[in-house]
Design goal:
Layout: H1 3-13, H2 25-33, H3 38-57, H4 62-72, H5 75-82, H6 89-99
Amino acid sequence: MDQKHLRKLINEMADTCPSKDGYCFIKEFLLHLGQDLRVMIQIKLIEKFKFERSREVKNDIGWEGAFMEWIKNGSAEKFAELYDEEKSLTQLYKEIKNGIK
């Protein structure tokens, strides 16, 4: 993955990072992880799933619940099948959701 794409992906992952002076710890952390962001990308997608699922059931399902449901509903398997470092998080998440219906 080239640096330009890596920065774009990290900006998408940390889009809510609060920063008045332009510094964002999470962005710096992700940049220093190196080129292999696959695990972090899947965690970010699970976070999105957790938020959406919690809103559906009108109760926080928690991280453990989100991880378990992510695996049981086939999302983890779909992630492994569909993962491509050139895809945006939004695109990948939509493809996973469409693939498990």
